[in-house]
Structure formats: structure tokens, C-alpha cells
Specification:
There is one protein chain. The strands form two sheets. The chain has a nine-stranded mixed β-sheet, with helices on both faces. The chain has a two-stranded antiparallel ribbon with strand order 7-8. The chain has about 230 residues and is an alpha/beta fold. It contains seven helices and eleven strands. The radius of gyration is 16 Å and the shape is globular. It has a single domain, classed as Carbamate kinase, CATH 3.40.1160.10. Helix 1 runs parallel beside helix 7 and helix 4 packs parallel to helix 6.
Length: about 230
Amino acid sequence: MSRVVLKLSGEAFADPKLEFGIDPDTVARVAEEIASVHNEGHEIAIVVGGGNIFRGVSSAAEGMDRANADYMGMLATVINALALRDALERAGSETRVQTAITIQQVAEPYIRLRAIRHLEKGRVVIFAGGTGNPFFTTDTTAALRAAEIGADAVLKATRVDGVYDDDPATNPEAVLISELGHMDAISRRLGIMDTTAVTMAMENDLPIRVFNMNRPGEIQRAVRGEDVGTLVH
């Protein structure tokens, strides 16, 4: 693969034990893995979540107007994007942050052709602010941006080894699925990404690879196109 969109949830920024806030060591580890494979010549764009700080559908947002809560979540993704950019720059990868909501003092606005140009020039691009609209998840953002920039695949980093036929957290007998189709993932409601994201990927012939970001070296293997986790295509 030459160009990929890596979807990182807020879990990628938090202490694994606490699952909230930004842990510098965790961010540095993720950045070093990304920088390592980026130096091999792959074009990498990243979509970041913000659940480690605020999530529009969380209990903390209970009683809030949904649109307002989602905008707060978008701002949380900008904070994560800036933290990741700093870590990537220290790891040796030139990085740009583009936001779907305008914050000119800290990041560029999202401009499709400019993002593509950054990738062609060997820069990592981080997409923050979701789609810029409430009611859409960062999973949908990943599928949308991947289609827009002509990516070869969406790589979804998670805390589990891939897609299971049941929730492995509650069912120890759950079986890992190595490969399945987009429509199968939707009809079986396997929860790998939201339905809008999977549908968009299906309509644009975008494969999705789901893998465990907590396994050392797994990000590099996923970017290289190796057979890790689950492939949805």
C-alpha cells in the first residue's frame, strides 16, 4: 500500500489503565511506530478521535444538546491531533494538522488538494475535527477522508486483535474472524465501525483492516499491508 488512512481512537492517547487524558509515553510509542513505517515511504494520513477527553454520546454529555456535545468532541480531537503532531515531529516525521472546523492559529483548515500535496511531499497529515458536522463519528470521517484523498485502505487501530463474532470482553468463546465482506459486517452488526462508515467504504471499494494497536509493531505491519487482524473488503 502506498497511501493509507489510519484511524486512532482516543484510546491511543490515554494511559491504558486510566482510559482518559493524554499520556505522553503512550502517545510517544504510537508516534514512533508511525514514524518508523512512514520513513519507509508510505503516505500516511491519520484521523483522530477524542473519546479520551470528551465524547458526544458519553454519560458526561447526558442532558446536553447532542449537536453541542458533538462540537465539544470535535474540539477534543484537535487537542489529540496537536499532541500527536508534536510526538511525530520529535520522532522525525514532518507533520501537518488539518481541521474540519476553522482554528487558524493552531492548524490548517481541511483542504483536500492541500492534504494530498502534503502526502506527496512526504508529510504525515492528521485530520481533526471530525467531518465538521455533529451526528457523524470519527469512523465516518476516516472513511470519508480515505475516499477523498484516494487512499488504498482504512486501518482501524483498536484494543482487540480484530473483529469477533461476539464481544470478546463478555464472551471468552468469541471467535476471531480473519476476513469478511462489507455487507456481511453491516448485516451482522459486528460493530467494527458505524454503519455509515462501513457503507461509505463499501461504496468506494475501500478495504478496512481492524487490528490491535497495543501489540508492538502492529501498526507498521498494518501499514505495510501484512495479514494482521481482520480484513473487511
